[in-house]
C-alpha cells in the first residue's frame, strides 16, 4: 500500500520533492568520481535510503538515529572535492522539526553542526573553516529550519487543543444550562402545577356538595394558571435572550486566547435600543462568525462594525485572514445557522472573500 511506504499526510506536498532528492543523490553518488568502491557506493546509498525511511516514520530516538546515518553518508561524500553534499542536510533538518520532543530537535541541530565541523576538519584542517565560506549561511539556515518547523507544529497543536477546550467549555455550559432549566422548572412550574392539581381535585369534590366552595377553588386554579403562564414566559425569555455586548466581550476574550485581536467600531450601547429578539439573533450570528474566524481564517485581527441605518441595523465582521473557498463556506453549519437566524427575522446575509480577508455582513430590520 502506498501509504505504508510514505506518510499519507505528506504525499500531496513532499512526495515529489523527496523523490527528486533521492534521484539527485543517486546520480551524484554513482556518477561523480569518489575513492569508494562501487559496492561501497551501493551500500552507502542503501544506508541513506534506510535512514531516510526511518526519519519519515519515527519521531523519537529513532529519528535521531536515522539522522545520524543520513548525515554520516553526506559527510563521507563531502570529504574531498565535493562538499556540495552538505546542502542535502536540509532533508534531515526538515524532519528533525517534525517531532513533539524538543530534545530530538535539539539533538538534530547539534548533529548537523558536527557534520559540518567533521567535513571541514578533514578538508581544511579547521573544524570551523565553514565560517569563511559560503557554507556558513547554509549551515545557519539548516540549524534554524528545524526550530521553525518545530515551532509551527507546536502552534498548530496548541490551536487544536484550544479548539478542543473551547468545544468542551461550550458542552459544559450547555450542560449547566440544562441543569438550571431543570431546577427552574421544578421550583416554579412544578410547584404551580402541583397547586393546580390540588385545587382541581378539591373543586371536583365540592362541585355537588358545595358549589360556592368549588367556584372558589376554580378561581384559584385560574389564578395559578395565569401565574404559571407568566413564569413560563419569564423562563423562556431567560433561555433565549443573548446580550450583544456580552457576546462581544466573550468573543474578544476567546479571540485573544487564540492570538487574534478583536476591534469594535460601534460603541455600546447601540442607539436605538434593539428588540431582544433582534439582539439575540445578532449576538448568536456574531458568536458563530467569530468561531469561524478562529477555526478557518488564520487571521491576526478581526473588526466588527455595527451601523444604524434608517430602517435596519447591519453588522459586518471582517478579518485579515486567508479568506474562504466556496466549498468551505457551504460545507459547514456555521454560515447555514446564520442564514437560518436571519430568515427568522427577515434579515439578509452577504459574504465574500477579499484580498484582505473574509467579510460577512448581516442586516436586520428594526423591530418595535
UniProtKB/TrEMBL annotation:
Catalysis: reaction(s): ATP + protein L-histidine = ADP + protein N-phospho-L-histidine
Record domain Histidine kinase/HSP90-like ATPase: where: 282-365
The species this protein was found in: Aureibacillus halotolerans
Gene3D superfamilies, alphabetized: 1.20.5.1930, Histidine kinase-like ATPase, C-terminal domain
Entry GO MF terms: phosphorelay sensor kinase activity; protein dimerization activity
GO cellular component: membrane
EC assignment: 2.7.13.3
Keywords: Coiled coil, Kinase, Membrane, Transferase, Transmembrane, Transmembrane helix, Two-component regulatory system
The protein's name: histidine kinase
Transmembrane segments: 12-32, 39-57, 63-91, 103-122, 134-151
Coiled-coil stretches: 148-175
Record InterPro entries: HATPase_C_sf, HATPase_dom, Sensor_HK_TwoCompSys, Sig_transdc_His_kin_sub3_dim/P
Domain Signal transduction histidine kinase subgroup 3 dimerisation and phosphoacceptor: 177-239
